[in-house]
């Protein structure tokens, strides 16, 4: 690969990362609008899009899907150990951890 091709590849990767960052912001905006409207369908779609963009952005930044999953599970374990309020009140942390482990 020539020096010019490497530079173009680096520029392309940087552009994709910037684009993905705007996608994350856009999905957060769409989620907030869906929450305001109370549309369960749009809330679900926005959350799914946000999660997908987060995974792909992570991959573009060098974080494998498996490593991201493991980091999420570690964060859930840490929240449980620290007595996170959502765990105390609703057991949301345990429920998500169980869901992820069963996949």
Name a few traits of the molecule.
MazG-like family protein, mainly alpha, nucleoside triphosphate diphosphatase activity, single chain, 103 residues
Protein described:
The protein has 103 residues and is an all-alpha fold. The chain folds into two domains: 1-63; 64-102, no CATH class. It is built from five helices and no strands. The chain starts with a helix and ends with a helix. The model has no long low-confidence stretch (mean pLDDT 94).
Quick structural gist:
By secondary structure, this protein is an all-alpha fold. It has five helices and no strands. The mean pLDDT is about 95.
Structural topology:
Elements: H1 3-37, H2 40-60, H3 65-81, H4 85-90, H5 92-102
Helix pairs in contact: 1-2, 3-5
> What percent of the residues sit in helical stretches (DSSP H or I)?
over 70%
How many strands?
0
First-last Cα distance: 40 Å
Report on the biggest sheet: none
Which consecutive residue ranges, at least 5 long each, have pLDDT under 50?
Answer: none
In terms of structural class, how would the helical and strand content be classed? mainly alpha
Oligomer: single chain
Give me the Rg, rounded.
18 Å
GO molecular function: nucleoside triphosphate diphosphatase activity
Protein name: MazG-like family protein
GO biological process, one term: nucleoside triphosphate catabolic process
InterPro entries: DCTPP (IPR025984)
